[in-house]
Amino acid sequence: xxxxxxxxxxxxxxxxxxxxxxxxxxxxxxxxxxxxxxxxxxxxxxxxxxxxxxxxxxxxxxxxxxxxxxxxxxxxxxxxxxxxxxxxxxxxxxxxxxxxxxxxxxxxxxxxxxxxxxxxxxxxxxxxxxxxxxxxxxxxxxxxxxxxxxxxxxxxxxxxxxxxxxxxxxxxxxxxxxxxxxxxxxxxxxxxxxxxxxxxxxxxxxxxxxxxxxxxxxxxxxxxxxxxxxxxxxxxxxxxxxxxxxxxxxxxxxxxxxxxxxxxxxxxxxxxxxxxxxxxxxxxxxxxxxxxxxxxxxxxxxxxxxxxxxxxxxxxxxxxxxxxxxxxxxxxxxxxxxxxxxxxxxxxxxxxxxxxxxxxxxxxxxxxxxxxxxxxxxxxxxxxxxxxxxxxxxxxxxxxxxxxxxxxxxxxxxxxxxxxxxxxxxxxxxxxxxxxxxxxxxxxxxxxxxxxxxxxxxxxxxxxxxxxxxxxxxxxxxxxxxxxxxxxxxxxxxxxxxxxxxxxxxxxxxxxxxxxxxxxxxxxxxxxxxxxxxxxxxxxxxxxxxxxxxxxxxxxxxxxxxxxxxxxxxxxxxxxxxxxxxxxxxxxxxxxxxxxxxxxxxxx
Length: 604
Description:
- The structure is a single chain.
- By secondary structure, the protein is an alpha/beta fold.
- It has 3 domains: 6-184 and 219-398, no CATH class; 185-218, no CATH class; 422-570, Glucose Oxidase, domain 1 (3-Layer(bba) Sandwich).
- The protein is 37% helix and 13% strand.
- The protein is built from 22 helices and 14 strands.
- The protein has helices spanning 6-36, 45-52, 59-64, 89-99, 115-118, 127-142, 159-168, 189-200, 206-216, 228-238, 254-269, 280-283, 286-299, 305-314, 322-329, 346-352, 354-364, 456-464, 481-484, 493-501, 582-586, 598-602; strands at residues 69-74, 103-109, 149-153, 175-177, 385-390, 393-398, 422-427, 430-435, 445-453, 472-476, 506-510, 523-528, 545-549, 554-557.
- The chain has an 8-stranded mixed β-sheet. Strands 2-1-3-4 form a 4-stranded parallel β-sheet, with helices on both faces. Strands 5-6 form a two-stranded antiparallel ribbon.
- Helix 7 links the parallel strand 3 and strand 4 (175-177).
């Protein structure tokens, strides 16, 4: 690609060189698997009979070994609004498969928890490691070796990364990720945020808050703010694992069903039994991972992917770190503003031009790689087009020449910010991530005495008691993967936002997560090494002066930590099944490596 930005080219080449041994081991493994499990013929008659015993009219086709058989891995449950539409997908996809002479089976289900339900409560401590369990469940589903392709049904926070990691270990098979789309827009995000802050201040009660939240989260489909779930969908587009521009079409519409049909047909067309074989291991290469990072930066996506993407890449033998994010952020501008970085949600984003606009802008400016295989014919260029129905036929049209809303989408030549807004901060307190895209520039550097907490409940209590009504750096430690599974700390957002609105200089420093719903308060998150791993945060004390700066990329204290003993770690948590996850916590790697126990123990 002749116009590729030199920084993008340099970072990509650095990743290639760093990953050369591990990537080659991965590709060698995939080649062995392709030779051993190229079709179902190696199974004994008894094994095979078990595999199609309940397949009804598809039995003869599966038994013959000649027909393409697609394995559906589904994260369906009807408690997650985003995943409720998947309930009918398998039956639909079986019909769509038969249209092209193929068959499909549900290979298995994976758990899918909703962070929105568990947020701030005990169950949230299972959230990050649910990604590893989803990956393991995906491997169990595909271990039957009955399938020629993988249809992955999942949307939300840990679900797509988990499905991705599991599928990559079966990279000799092609994979298509099949989204279900966002729910229609509810009340404005500004109104929702206003009620949340009023509740935090005690000015409205639970009844008013619940009414507001119910008007926002109100129907089947993904939550409409641009958090981790919708960032997942963006990344699948940037890596070429979706049917082009399928991410943000609402559920239960004719266009949504047409896209699911197209995904099924396309997966059948790219298996080894066809003439356009596109195994996942080849589609997801170093360039595809760089594209995912570029998309994340350009759209102001979830900081959770500073953890998920390293883990996802490792599953394919590709090694990335936060310096790669930081360096790419220096040249990839912020060209979208979707709530919480702007006022409109993902439905407004899609209507204004959406992913077709973003892909076209990034490719045109040389900020993403055009030459990756993708599951679509035409490579990344196909993702510059948006799907439409012409009668009953699905077609694609070019992205609009002009943004449909320049408060939400802008060209690379006139961005909202000149950089991607995901900074690496480092110093004598460790390394962390600072998402600048939602934070006013005058708040990028905060220096103040700190107040140290071991729980977010402690912060809430201190706020209610008026103890934080001043310039303060709030430190919340023992929130990393090894300590308690690294829950998201969204309970911190309303009180810290109130303090900032009162005119105080406020910042957050934590070894926990805040995700794509983190907002206007400056924060160093994912700080590593975490406190439980003898990280510097374990040595901080109330009143130590802490400086956090996205301007110069630092996080430091003037306190002398060397002569201190570390703070005692909280006792391991019991209840809500957390004790069953002790193995995951004990073996978890650092946040920058993906915070996984599974990958650590597998030597990946």
